[in-house]
Structures are given as C-alpha cells and as structure tokens.
Amino acid sequence: MIDLTICPEGLRHNLAVARENGIIIPTYAQMKDPSTIPEKLRERLKTVGLWDTDPLNLFRITWKNEAKEKGGLFREVPNYIELPSSLTGVKCRIVALVGKWFPTGCHKVGASFGCLVPRLVTGQFDATHHKAVWPSTGNYCRGGAFNSRLLGVHAVAILPAEMSQERFDWLHSIGAEVIATPGCESNVKEIFDKTHELSEDPQCMIFNQFEQMGNHLWHYQVTGDAIATVFEAVKAPGQRLAGACFTSGSAGTIGCGDYLKERYPRMKLGVGEALQCPTILSNGFGDHRIEGIGDKHIPWIHNVKNTDMAIAIDDEDSQRLLRLFNTDAGRAYLRDELGLSEEFIATLSWLGISGIANVLCCIKMAKYYEFTDRDVVCTVLTDSADMYRSRVAELNEQYGDYTPAAAAMDHALHMLGLKTDAMLELGYREAKRVHNLKYYTWVEQQGKAMEDLNELWYGDEWEQVHGQAEALDQLINAFNEESGVLKAL
Question: Is beta strand 375-381 parallel, antiparallel or unpaired with respect to 93-98?
Fold first, then answer.
C-alpha cells in the first residue's frame, strides 16, 4: 500500500513552495482524461513547450498530448502507431502507444510522478529539507529530475556509467545532481548499493522505482486506461485484445497489465527481458544492451502471479533494428522494398531501444500463440531514438557503411526471422519460482519482511493499491485548494 499518512509540518512547507513557484498538481483523473483540466490551464499550455521546465507541464503527464513540441494540447485517443504485417511478419495487429510525446520524450515522467506526489501532498517529503533520490537504469531518473524541477525539489539522479551520453548531458542541463555507478543497465545491484549509502543521509529520500507502489499505480490507472482507449478506437468487428507485452525495467509499465486483464480477462500478458541476462527465464545473469531495462533481480512491484509468459529478446536484434529504422539506407529499403509510406517510416524514429524490444516481444508472443488477423497485441514505446543517436553512430563505426542489402538482411534476421525460442509460459509453479527470486534482493539485501513478500502472493495487496487513486486525487485537490495557486489564476 502507498502510505498516505499526513505530516503537517512538511505539508505546510510544501504548500509554501507551491505558492512561491506557481505549482498546481494534476489528478489521476486529469492525467487519464485531460479534457477535465480547467480551461484556463489548457489555454496557458498553448504557450508552453513540451520539454519546458514550467510547472504547467505537470498537466502534460498523459498519453494524450498532441504530437507537437510546442503549443500542442490534447487528443481524445492517445498517440499510437500500428506496425504493418509486411514489417512484423505476423498476421495479428501490433499497436504501440508512443512515449515520445511526454515531457522528456519518455513516459517515465508518469512513473516518477506516481512516486513523488503522494509524499508531497501528504508532507512526508519536505521540499524545503529533503533531496529526491532517483535510482534508475536511465529514463526514470530523467523523469524524476524533470518532475523535481517542476515541483521545486532538489533531485539526485543515479544511473549506470555506461548509459548513453545523451542521458548524462540532459540531466546536467536540467540542473540535477548526477551520480554514475559502475556498469551498464544490468548492474542494478551497484545502483542499490549507492542508494543504500545515500539513505544514511536523513536529507535523502529514496524513490526506488523497483519497489515504489506509486510506480505500479500510475501505470495501472493511466497506462492501462490509455491502452484500453486505443484498442477500443482501432478494433474492427470481431477483433479481440489477445495480448500485451512489456520489457521489465522496474516492472512499472507491466502494472497496466493488471488493469487490462481485469477488462479483457482472456488476454495474455508477457514480460520481456534480455537474452543476455535471462533472470526470469532461467535465474540467469550477465550484461546486455537494451537500455532502459534492468536485470539480475525481480522488482518488488512486479505482480508475477498475473503474468502469463516470459520472453527473452537478443540485444543484437534491438540494436540492428535501431540502425534499420534510423539510417537513410534503412529507410530506403523500407520504402522501396516493403512499400511503406514516408509518413509511416518517419514514425519509426519513435521507437527507442526498449520500445523495439517491446515490439519484438509482441511478435514472438504472436508466433507462439498463433495469433491471427482477429487478434490485437499492444505495447508501449517508452522513449524514442532521440536518446540513442550515438548508438547508431557506434553501429555504423562497428559494421561499416549501411546499404539497402544490409538493411534487408537485418530485417530478415532480426525481425522476420524471430523464433519462439527463449520463451516460457508461467504456470502457477513457474510464476511462484520467479516470485520467490524477490526474496534474495528484497528480504536478504534490502531488509523487507517475509510477511510482506508473502502478502504480494497470497494477499490482496495489489487490489488495495489499485483502489488508492481516488484517495490520492482527494489529497491532490485539497493541496491545490489550500495553496490557492489555481484560484489566483
């Protein structure tokens, strides 16, 4: 459960910070349906750029932003792309929500909002005293730093040293305190070690995305509703939501699967990981290059009992397709050989590395379950290629000039040629095995109680968390009313 205990002193300080900085906080209801945002705020947003560090951009923490860098408002149906069968090689429809049109270009601003705001509106986090520490494999700390800036909070971003240079440059530009830990996205233990060290400082409040139920709740409420909205908008008569797949970083995004399975009970829910570090699949370990996901542990907030399948993706597949989608020769192949439109090809830059891996999970699931043209499989594109231009340059340097022939080979080998290997259906016993892996990280290393671990499996913890959005909205509305910022506009 998310602790909603009120701390009066911290709350008073946070209200003062809100008044001083003109901060108004959106509700979950408004993030799901931006048409409910007050008209005077929507008018002001027309002059605010998508990435501007303006508190008004808190109201752009939604899947329904218009696809504009400046002056955009909101859509009725979230931004999405549908990948044609000529590209994916499967008959079923694969539909992906687009994270590029969030502030920072990534939906992790939502996950970090879900972690920080409950402690702000209760006063547990005191903006005049605490530092918000954001341990991450990349995008979450970017979202946390952005939200911290908008909410008048000092941010500390922790991420692996081998993440893309674009991430570090952006974090410094926004004024975050940055700590680089050894290794790559697989080195989560090193992130936890630094987090533990910082937790000894009473000024540091840790927002560990891997254990924060606010991360899960935001995706359950907002991402789950967004995917359902897109599916209902695009489905043809007789079509069904057959599956949804999400690679696991913090396991926040896959929380939307709980919402979707309640609404579409026959749907299959798949979790993806890197073949080079197959923790779920075979209790494995290693290093990989699918930036934005982390391994060697099972996140506390992953509802494993509700997950139907584990799917491993070779990181070489995601790297080669990143190159295919973001080079002139690759785009020429897609246009001339597959007959894809220039308009659609331009949208393929909306797929970052983990987004590509998500799509590959959908393809493997579709092949495994023999989905047909009656079936729709959904996923999300966490971020876009904007954070990985240096990776494309590295691939060009490694493999030489890219040609249409090389593009055709990459498409054939790394997308059309995907097999149903390195997959595992999670029946009761397999799912319990994966759940039990939480013990080693969270009980032995991080000090959680065995009773709480068992509650995640046998109890109603997930249902209780899912029901907290209404109480949070009441607290947010009370905070905005008390600060008086909205009334003063």
Answer: parallel
